[in-house]
């Protein structure tokens, strides 16, 4: 079918009152196609470098299997995301926003919990990515013993949360903050300009990642002995070994599931029905290749002992490790450092684009504070972007990025549990709603099963990375409940904004309230109760394996 070449008028959001700053809020602009969304999401494959050492140090020889299983889970889940995204061509913000519309009918606080947990999971990529990029720059330019690398000033000890955790100021923080400001400037010009920039950077990153994954296989540098004995670090596939494996799957999910960010831009797609499914499946296939090959090549060429050294676990030695894999001297090493910095900038751009739109749409739909719903003349949600920036400048002051990662993964697993169940809930409650893409029913069922697998991993694997990770993540998730009730009850008078019911059949109730159909009966409540039970079972398994 022929497609029109005339670009549609930018979407307006007249139902959002002016929250200050002057001018007319023109909303998000429909300027993006699926290829642009793919390149925006092209920063996700590089996330494997964030925790490849941490997972190897947790699991041991089976760590490549962890990555393979995790990315397969993510790919199976993506079919659920693709279907529910197609239901909401007018909404931005990704799967959490679309899933929230399933849960709000049954438990109002659960809906903003989904959106909030997704943002808390994604936003710290800005911290981890910019921090690692700053570390690479400092390592490349200055000796390890140089004052600029060793100077650090403790502002607040947080050992009561996690041993060794503190708020500190150092050179890494300063350089990382400059990286974040650079990305903010690029994103300020709107999604289309960001996509064009990321197309160039994406090519410069994905090709070297493929080289790293393929070259050792061609040269014969992958050594079978580096996978033996194929048992966890505990020494056997016993209760302790399976707990370590669960911990690896838990942390890998933060990276391996993350290509769902490619559907954060539904309201900016020129053709949402076509572009949504193409964007997420193409991004998923790219991640399947990278997440399978790169961990296998790293371990096969370097061995578990090298992967578990401190410099790879904290991320700062990944560039040197890549040099060891492909060979070469200082020139190659410096080129790889440049590539890694570009890769990290790409992931930061991907994250700021996606997570800011989650805040923006959460505000438009009445979940989050109203001030986040404003865009600039380019259609960029700048207030949400400033919020992202400020939050991550605070996180950058923390001394342990693996703890930040584990805590944000707690939130990510909560989001995944809720939204995978939203797939069947939308089928039940909105059977006649237009679905540009309808996933096979078997994949919707598999997504539901994986929701409970993720809940099990949440209880079983979170505290492998420190006893405070699960508790801190749950507390961070709960913060949204009073925030939502203040917005909904005090600011909005108990009535959701008009944009809340965009794209779905709805009726007007009393006092102008929107009423969405409820056909699932008690099943959503049984799901919530079952999720809690499964998390507790995971905790019991973790205790047995400790």
UniProtKB/TrEMBL annotation:
Q: Which residues cross the membrane?
A: 36-59, 65-88, 119-142, 169-187, 199-219, 239-259, 279-298, 331-354, 393-417, 437-457, 464-486, 525-544
Bilayer topology reads: Multi-pass membrane protein
* Biased amino acid composition, Basic and acidic residues: 1-10
Q: Which InterPro entries match?
A: AA/rel_permease1 (IPR002293), APC_superfamily (IPR050367)
UniProt keyword terms in alphabetical order: Cell membrane, Membrane, Transmembrane, Transmembrane helix
Highest taxon of the source?
A: Bacteria
Protein name, per record: APC family permease
Record organism: Actinomycetospora aeridis
Q: What is the lineage of its organism?
A: Bacteria, Bacillati, Actinomycetota, Actinomycetes, Pseudonocardiales
